[in-house]
Amino acid sequence: MSSSPWKVIGASGFVGSAILARLRAEGIEADPIEAPRLSTHATDAKTLIKEARRLEAIIDSLADSFAGAEVVINASGLAAPSQQDLAPLVGANALLPAVIAIAAQRTGIKRLIHMSSAAVQGNVEVLDSTPVTQPFSAYSFSKALGEEVLLNLERFINKQAAAGAAPGSAHSDFPAAPASAPATVAPHHALELCIVRATSVMGRGRRTTEAFARFASSPLASVAAGNHRTPIASNYALAEFTVKVGAFDGHLPSIVLQPWEGATAKSVLVDAGRRLPLQIPASIARVAVAAGYAISEALGDRFQAPVRRIELMWFGQDQDDSWAQEHQLIPTPRVSEVLRDAHTALGKKQDARFIS
User: Fold this and answer.
1) Cα separation values, 71 from 5, 15, 313, Å
2) Model confidence over 63-73: pLDDT tens digits?
3) Burial group, residue 259, by CB count within 10 angstroms (0-12, 13-18, 19+)
């Protein structure tokens, strides 16, 4: 049985593969774990936790895969911002994280890093690491629900551990896992759980990145006048930051935000399109966004997601990455490189002013 100190769930996916590659590049032993597929019609945290606790066969399977690990990274999930069907979204983005956390606690794992999305905070002026969420789509709702589930489990685990009855320990009603070879869980052991909120992540081979480069290369590319910071980032920087968080020598906060990579709403369009985007007066752009939201609301919020994407393109969004700054965990910025590579991959003609 493998005894690698790190395990990556969903290592074949876009984010998971980047994290696994980063771990191996740093000489850290890590094993990939395939994520089970779950679906559920539950839409509240309490019900999801109850449902997760009943999935003993999956808990056992995951616990068996966790053998010998100290850090587990959950990079699985369903990244489908346009999808409306809640059952598979909640299954992948909320129910599965709960099952993973339960299995990790009952196996005595030291630290679980869960990859979430800054989309859970919606159109707040500044993204941060507070538990407040404002989901605006089925996808962001499922990710926000996943965070709520994990924060609830964290409080329960800490409470039980403080009382000497940590889940998986001898005095707990919740047995150690896997059932075939139960782990030894100390009575005061509490899984350290940290949610990493990824921002708008771009990378080679991602359809979202290709579509962004294609749009940025077109005459339709536009931005609101001004110097607006944007949360668009690279998968390389996210992977580097996640590994830094997992290896952090100290107590982790419950939620951390992926740090800003220095990009602006204008710079990402220039990098991805190799041309200057149309600049729209900020006042006109704000009126257009407000009108879009009003029309969407009148039609049952049907266009919330696309209007939000336009708003992000025009105005970007600021980030409070003070925790990462304070602890010197800022990764190497590579978003410009990723977007320029995406443009080159399109094979489109470049504006001579931007060939460098």
Assistant:
1) 6, 17, 36
2) 999 998 999 99
3) buried
* pLDDT over 60 at 3, yes or no: no
**Count of H-run helices and E-run strands, the chain:** 13, 12
Torsion of CA 267, 270, 276, 279, to 10 degrees: -40
Distances from the Cα of 349 to the Cα of 85, 221, 295, 326, angstroms: 39, 16, 37, 42
* Tens-place pLDDT, residues 34-78: 999 999 999 999 999 999 999 999 999 999 999 989 999 999 999
How is the chain split into domains, by residue range? 6-197, 199-342
Pick from 178, 152, 174: which is nearest to 60 by CA?
Answer: 178
Count of residues in the chain: 356
CB 128 within 8 A of CB 320: yes
d(CA 209, CA 342): 7
353, two tokens: 């002013």
What are 276's two structure tokens? 């200057």
- Phi (first) and psi of residue 43, to 5 degrees: -135, 20
For domain 6-197, give its CATH number from 3.40.50.12780, 3.40.50.720, 3.30.465.10, 3.10.180.10: 3.40.50.720
The pair of three-digit structure tokens given for residue 285, joined into one six-digit string: 């752009």
Instruction: Evaluate if pTM is beyond 0.85.
Output: yes
Listed in sequence order, the DSSP H helices in 176-234 are 207-216
For residue 305, report the phi and psi dihedrals to the nearest 5 degrees: -65, -50
Cα(107)–Cα(178) distance, integer angstroms: 7
DSSP string, 92-158: IIIIHHHHHHHHHHHTT-SEEEEEEEGGGGTT-SEE-SSS-----SHHHHHHHHHHHHHHHHHHHHH
Q: Are strands 222-224 and 192-198 parallel, antiparallel or unpaired?
A: unpaired
CA distance 203 to 131: 27
What are the tens digits of pLDDT across the range 156-203? 999 999 999 999 999 999 999 999 999 999 999 999 999 999 999 999
